[in-house]
Amino acid sequence: MCHPEVECISKGKAHKKYEFGCKAALVTTHKEGLCVSMEAMHGNPYDDHTIKQAIANAEKLSQATIDQIFFR
After folding, report:
1. Does some domain include residue 25?
2. Residue 72: inside a domain, yes or no?
3. How many angstroms separate the CA atoms of 15 and 55, rounded?
4. Bridge-based pairing state of the strands 35-41 and 18-21
5. Which of 7, 22, 25, 27 could bridge 37 with an S-S bond, Cβ 3.0-4.6 Å?
6. Which residues lie across from 26 on neighbouring strands?
7. 35-59 burial, b if ≥16 CB within 10 A, otherwise e?
8. Does residue 47 sit within a domain?
9. pLDDT, tens only, 21-71
10. Helix (H, G, I), strand (E, B), or coil: what is residue 35?
11. Which residues of 4-27 are buried (b: 16+ CB within 10 A; e: fewer)?
12. Does residue 16 belong to any structural domain of this protein?
């Protein structure tokens, strides 16, 4: 089966130079662990550039303002 959404991601490490897949942004609630938003990030974007987009999408979908962010 062919998956056109899978991309080659360069890791830059000697023991594992490449991975295949797609980055994803997942936003959950802190206490309950409920998924508020998730989206595929195509093109291997830099992680720092995806945070604002993920939070904005979660706020739009939940119709609530996110005031605290915890990274895992």
Report:
1. yes
2. no
3. 33
4. unpaired
5. 27
6. 38
7. ebbebebeeeeeeeeeeeebbebbe
8. yes
9. 778 889 998 888 899 999 888 877 887 888 888 999 999 999 999 988 887
10. strand
11. eeeeeeeeeeeeeeeeeeebebeb
12. yes
Total length of the chain: 72
Q: Of all helices (H) and strands (E), which one includes residue 52?
A: helix 47-62
CA–CA gap between residue 33 and residue 43 (Å, rounded): 28
Coil, helix or strand at residue 39: strand
| C-alpha span between 37 and 62 (Å, rounded) | 8
CB 38 within 8 A of CB 26: yes
For residue 71, give the nearest of 27, 6, 22, 16 by alpha carbon: 27
Tokens of 59: 């706020």
Separation between Cα atoms, residue 63 and residue 61, nearest integer Å: 6
Determine the pLDDT at residue 5. Answer: 67
